[in-house]
Input
Amino acid sequence: MDKQLNEGKLQNEVNKNEEVMSNFNEFKSFLQGKVEMGEKLGMGEEQLAKAAEKVAGFLAENQSPKNSEERLLQELWKVGTEEEKHNLAHMLVKFVQ
Output
């Protein structure tokens, strides 16, 4: 039930920001805003990466890429091991910091 609730929240956030997902620079700004919000809430890099990992997993499974950059991220996510996905999540957080 908790997983379904979290996925529902993610889907609502993605739906509200559909136009953000169509342009990579806007997507990057959106992600940067979310990371900044997490930092203000006291989240460290590991917590931010774990949150990014959940969102990336959800997007990879439930959303079609809207641009070539998102397609690349989705394909990397699909072929990565759990450790590689975790590292990619860390890189995404660092990318927008």
